Amino acid sequence: MNRQTVTIIQTFSTVREITIDVEADDHESAVEALQNGDIDVPAFDDPRWVTRWTLQSEEYE
Predict the structure, then answer these.
(1) What are the domain boundaries of the chain?
(2) Arithmetic mean of pLDDT, 1-26
(3) pTM given for the model
């Protein structure tokens, strides 16, 4: 029997989520302030971020 090389290709969907407290009159104003850049989104490496990975497909070549 001979050795064969097989490549496994996995495609994932990734979702990152963080919940923060924002000073605002109401929820809609808080969301708008984030969208407008009036409030900074936490840094990418902030440990409060939660990442979920979902395998979408797997192929073999």
Answers:
(1) 8-60
(2) 97
(3) 0.69
